[in-house]
Amino acid sequence: MQRPLFLALLLLSLMWGGSFFFIKILLPDFEPLPISFLRSGFGLATIVLIMLVTRQKFGWKSIPWPLMIVVGLVNTAVPWTLIGLSETKLTSSMASVLNATTPLWTMVVGILFFKAASNFVQWLGIAIAFVGILVLVDVNPESFVSVDLVGLFCMLTATLCYGIGTQLSRRLSGLTLYQTTFGTLLTTTLATGIASLLWADADWAQVAAWHNLGALVGLGVFGSGVAYILFYYLVQKGSPEFATLVTYLLPVTAIIWGYTLLDEAITWNLLAGMMLVLCGVFVAGRKANKAAVVDK
Predict the structure, then answer these.
(1) Does an H or E element contain 163, and which?
(2) C-alpha distances out from residue 74 to 70, 100, 125, 167, 173, Å
(3) Is the pLDDT of residue 115 over 90?
(4) What angle do CA 89, 103, 58 make, to 5 degrees?
(5) Looking at residue 291, what is its pLDDT?
(6) CB half-sphere exposure, 156, CA atoms < 13 A
(7) Closest among 1, 40, 9, 26 to 252, alpha carbons compared
(8) Greatest C-alpha distance within the chain
(9) What's the rounded Cα separation, in Å, for the pair 148 and 158?
């Protein structure tokens, strides 16, 4: 395997792992809906620029817009907003580890609703990851769990949305990754922009603050724009299986971001829960042949 591929994999994990840190930076000045709007808007501008420079076809007429709108809402707009809500209650490290359960939700949704085949090994992996979640949230007889239940519910619902969205996005056949990314980000920008105007109280002038602008560049330009191109590069030049290694690196880099820049504690249940969740993902996905983007 070539060294540039490993460098690209590391950069991708840093970008997607850093997204949880950047959301934390933005939350004091913005509600979750405006953060989703700004994130998708910066990402959309980046993808459009890349497509223009590389002369990629937008293919407006070839995009099945009704399905694209559904995928954009379920796979991007809703989970991004829910992740923002969860991070008002949870640490970025905790949110990132819960986010690593996305491949399992994708598998469960596929088995239950899309007639995907299943076997004992897959269910064993899902069970291991479930135990990991119990360890992660520190289930105990006194307080039940040691994390905020609203934050936990929002984060797990976001990963469930990713699972449903991943299954639906497979119906977008015949489109390039550029077209799919463009369509989903356009849908998300419009949806969250309208929702922000209707239901959120945002001081848009705060975007110009250096810390917010820097966070939006990291979250939108790199995490929601450049990162998808890097993932596509890993799939093409490496393999789908190699690209999915980001699943295992993402929570590790997110924990490093949180510990070094947000002073978040690294507890035994965080590390043990992460190891069990990632072990479950590995066991359940051993038979997988296709890559799935994790996030975001």
Answers:
(1) helix 149-169
(2) 6, 18, 25, 11, 18
(3) no
(4) 95
(5) 43
(6) 13
(7) 9
(8) 60
(9) 16
